[in-house]
Amino acid sequence: MKQIPSHREFERIQALPPYVFAEVNAMKDAARAAGEDIIDLGMGNPDLAPPDHVVEKLVETVRNPRVHRYSASRGIRGLRRAVAGYYRRRFDVRLDPEREVIVALGSKEGFAHLATAITEPGDQVLVPDPSYPIHPYGFVLAGAEICRVPVGPNRDFVSELERALAAGAGRVKAVTVNFPANPTAAVVGLDAYEAMVDLCRRHSVWILSDLAYAEIYFDGSPPPSILQVPGAKELAVEFTSLSKTYSMPGWRIGFAAGNPHLVATLARIKSYLDYGAFTPIQVAATAALNGPQEYVDTVRETYRRRRDTLVSGLRRAGWEVEPPVATMFAWARVPAPFRAAGSLAFAKTLLADARVAVSPGAGFGPGGEGWVRISLVENEQRIRQACRNIRQFLEREDVGNRATRGAA
Question: Using DSSP, how many helices (H) and how many strands (E) does the chain show?
Fold first, then answer.
């Protein structure tokens, strides 16, 4: 019998680059195993507890013996109605919960499954650069060709998008957008969404919008939804999540809303892949959306205080970082003496010498090189300690560099 070689490579997996975050995580785990106190500002993993009434609803529901059967792949009707209610209250957008809303096992799963469903051989997809990895690699795994569109400080994303659409005329299947953005924390106004919708309509291109950080904003107006643009539902679907808004990342509950054809397409592929989220989780998620919203204000204020603590502490350390206006991240330029080595090397050095973990920008695409993402997932006391550690590290490096120059 012919043996299957154990080293056989799989083409689509080979299309994925090395997961640079894994190298930092492995170092972090080893350091902690050795007893070191590592302050983890890497993964965007909320540390806050979900609302009490949501947890209580989960416990109450899970005791019902009838809810342990398979659930509905599209999501229970009450939750889809709650999503529509949220869009009505927050954005003044009307959604049909039967045709224009679907529940996903987290927005990441929904995004990847929709990418699989709509991609055909030869398709090109435009993605922001840098971007959250699922935005390009959900489509890479589906077999699409990726074209990266620069986004971030001193970049006009609409102008960059217009150039990319013109260059790929006739081949572009979809555009992904993510504002407020992970990792850059960039935001756009409704006028930018209007321009994006107009461009994509003229080029007959779908839009997949990720709005996971809609409720984590600080100094300006609440971020808009692309579905607020008249006619946007003709070509756009938007993914949202309870992970950050209600500190429920492990619950894996997200949504897609908008274009009924894309929603139906996602429903079709999901019907083959899953039976929907556990019903008690969906019931509790409904309670989160329909219940009192003071918790969301508390979360927003908590992240604002952490942001201010981080930015002021890093500035005292000699590291100038722009305060983000939204998201739970700061997007920080690697200090000049470390840029030549790259963001991964800097993240490793920071972990080893300052005992602070951050995410290397290279993990978010070529446009992320030279930057790191710092997550606001520790309390203010720990963030202050992280800044003190970084200050001591930078001062040691500065003394060492001066000594080296003097010896030369």
Answer: 13, 12
| Tokens read off for 29 | 């785990």
pLDDT digits (tens, 9 = 90+) for 210-228: 999 999 999 878 999 999 9
Handedness of CA 380, 248, 297, 226 (dihedral sign): positive
Q: How many CA atoms lie within 13 A of 221 on its CB side?
A: 8
Interatomic CA distance for residues 343 and 53, integer angstroms? 42
In the chain, what are the domains? Answer: 11-49+295-397 (3.90.1150.10), 53-290 (3.40.640.10)
To 5 degrees, how large is the angle CA 159–CA 161–CA 167? Answer: 110
> d(Cα 138, Cα 135) in Å, to the nearest integer?
6
pTM: 0.92
Beta strands in 91-161, from DSSP E residues, in sequence order = 101-104, 124-129, 145-150
* Tokens, residue 129: 């650069």
Cβ atoms within 10 Å of 258's Cβ, excluding its own: 27
Give yes or no for a cis peptide into 180 (omega within 30° of 0).
yes
Tens-place pLDDT, residues 99-130: 999 999 998 999 999 999 999 988 999 999 99
Reference 79, options 293, 296, 285; nearest CA is 285
Helix (H, G, I), strand (E, B) or coil at 278: coil
Instruction: Report which of 163, 160, 141, 140 is spatially closest to residue 152, judged by C-alpha positions.
Output: 160
Q: How far apart are CA 321 and CA 185, in angstroms?
A: 12
Q: One-letter amino acid identity for 165? A: L
